[in-house]
Specification:
Order of helices and strands of chain B: EEEEEEEEEEE
Helix content of chain A: under 10%
Oligomer: heterodimer
Radius of gyration of chain B: 13 Å
Shape of chain A: globular
Strand content of chain B: over 45%
Number of strands of chain A: 11
Radius of gyration of chain A: 13 Å
Shape of chain B: globular
Largest interface: A-B, 24 and 21 residues
Structural class of chain A: mainly beta
Distance between the termini of chain B: 31 Å
Number of helices of chain A: 0
Number of strands of chain B: 11
Helix content of chain B: under 10%
Chain lengths: 110, 115
């Protein structure tokens, strides 16, 4: 079982729709969760962090964390073509080890 | 700009060459990281330095040798690389590896091609 699992996609959504990106993790003691956005040919850029169960909103982005289900998600409202990128989930587990998922490629269709 | 710079941005080297990658952060962070990113693979953590001390070596071959002279600078010395080492090498920094809120900020990366 992969430590951090994401669907590789591509996930295609029409412009203006809600994009839902999901991530599951295996280390039950994980405490910190991050979403990074990576445009093609560029480096990852931190867009959201979440540390406690529930929702955290920042502009059009909402991160959701459910530690009991070992599940973290990222919702992007009013998706724009400029949101087209690969979204990486990162989890800090035991011994402060950070593990990245393989990423989900999002395509927003104009 | 994230406050993390990397040079060179592109590097082509033969298998017998020796080269070094440089990373510098201007964020006042105490932890610095080297990652390797290959196509269709997750980011692979290579090395971690926290307060100039190496805290993690993720079973990286000895042909990769890190150096961290201070909390702002990180090097990756390369020698006798293999073609499969061709990848994007990313440097990142964070406030403190031991902190739960370990938000990492990445440099632009060095695209390495080994011929």
């Amino acid at each position: 079982q992969k430590e951090v699992e994401q669907n590789s996609g591509p996930l295609s959504v029409p412009e203006g729709a809600i994009a839902s990106l999901n991530c599951t993790y295996s280390d039950r003691v994980s405490q910190s969760f991050f979403w990074y956005r990576q445009y093609s040919g560029k480096s990852p850029e931190l867009i959201m962090s979440i540390y406690s169960n529930g929702d955290k909103e920042d502009g059009r982005f909402t991160a959701q964390l459910n530690k009991a289900s070992q599940y973290v998600s990222l919702l992007i409202r009013d998706s724009q073509p400029s949101d087209s990128a690969t979204y990486l989930c990162a989890v800090v587990g035991g011994y402060q080890k950070v593990t990245f998922g393989t990423g989900t490629k999002l395509q927003v269709i104009p | 700009e994230t406050g993390v710079t990397q040079t060179p941005r592109h590097l082509v080297m033969g298998m017998t060459n020796k080269k070094s990658l440089k990373c510098e952060q201007h964020l006042g962070h105490n932890a610095m990281y080297w990652y390797k990113q290959s196509a269709k693979k997750p980011l692979e953590l290579m090395f971690v330095y926290n307060f100039k001390e190496q805290t993690e070596n993720n079973s990286v071959p000895s042909r990769f040798s890190p150096e961290c002279p201070n909390s702002s600078h990180l090097f990756l010395h390369l020698h006798t690389l293999q073609p499969e080492d061709s990848a994007l090498y990313l440097c990142a920094s964070s406030q403190d590896q031991g902190s739960l809120r370990d938000e990492q900020y990445f440099g632009p990366g060095t695209r390495l091609t080994v011929t």
